[in-house]
Write a structure and sequence with these properties.
Strand content: 25-35%
Structural class: alpha/beta
Order of helices and strands: EEEHEEHEHHHEHEHEE
Number of strands: 10
Strand order of the largest sheet: 6-7-8-3-9-10
Largest sheet: 6 strands, mixed
Radius of gyration: 18 Å
């Protein structure tokens, strides 16, 4: 299977006068349609790595290739387009817009990209909302559904533009254990059905073990990289 994402010799240093290195010479490849987890203690560099993968931050040195394209020298506009078209984000906090309904929130990335919503986009949004089990609350405002439902709405939103890569930063960090299990099972179902590549940061080893590959970051370096099977 081809690589959808490649990180080559990634280093990240913060500060000008007092320099703090957070990532050291990271080399990683991610295959299309794979389900990966990244674990590590607080301060290990895993969130910085995720931000670089998601083009929210730039490496101090090294190259990031997405679908074979080196994005290292992309400008802000090019990166914004890439993010909206290729990458879906699921964060620890859902970041739904409280004044909008579940349906309106799910459609938001599509509306940003295209300015208007087509019949096809509306059907896709409805289908995604059904997949994540929210059809009964589709017209509820984001503030009128439970925490687990909010996170499932965020998952549907991350899929609306058919992203090749989905990044999860502690996507179940605010949920109880039963809801966490439900959400992760849902992510695996989506991975199997849509063939999106998942890269999920988690501090929960039980959750990480559900992935096909576990990458452990320690002190800004790859400490372990285990592929099941």
């Amino acid at each position: 299977m081809a690589n959808i994402l490649e990180l080559k010799n990634i280093n990240k240093i913060y500060g000008e006068k007092i320099k703090t290195q957070v990532l050291y010479n990271i080399n990683l490849d991610f295959q299309e349609s794979s389900f990966n987890s990244i674990i590590g203690a607080s301060g290990s560099g895993k969130s910085t790595l995720m931000n670089i993968i998601g083009t929210l931050d730039k490496a101090t040195s090294g190259d990031v290739l997405i679908d074979g394209n080196n994005i290292t020298n992309f400008n802000k506009e090019q990166l914004a387009v890439l993010r909206n078209e290729t990458i879906g984000f699921i964060f620890q906090f859902h970041y739904l817009l409280p004044e909008f309904t579940v349906l309106e929130n799910v459609l938001m990335p599509y509306r940003i990209k295209h300015n208007k919503v087509t019949k096809e986009a509306l059907k896709r949004a409805n289908d995604l909302i059904e997949i994540v089990g929210l059809s009964k609350v589709i017209n509820n405002k984001a503030t009128d559904i439970s925490g687990g439902q909010q996170q499932r709405a965020a998952i549907a939103r991350s899929l609306i533009n058919s992203p090749r890569i989905i990044l999860g930063d502690e996507p179940t960090g605010n949920l109880d254990s039963e809801t966490t299990e439900t959400v992760y099972n849902l992510l695996r179902e989506i991975n199997n059905e849509f063939k999106s590549t998942f890269i999920v940061i988690t501090h929960d080893k039980r959750i990480a073990e559900k992935a096909d590959r576990i990458i452990e970051i320690k002190d800004g370096k790859i400490y372990a990289d285990f592929i099941k099977g």
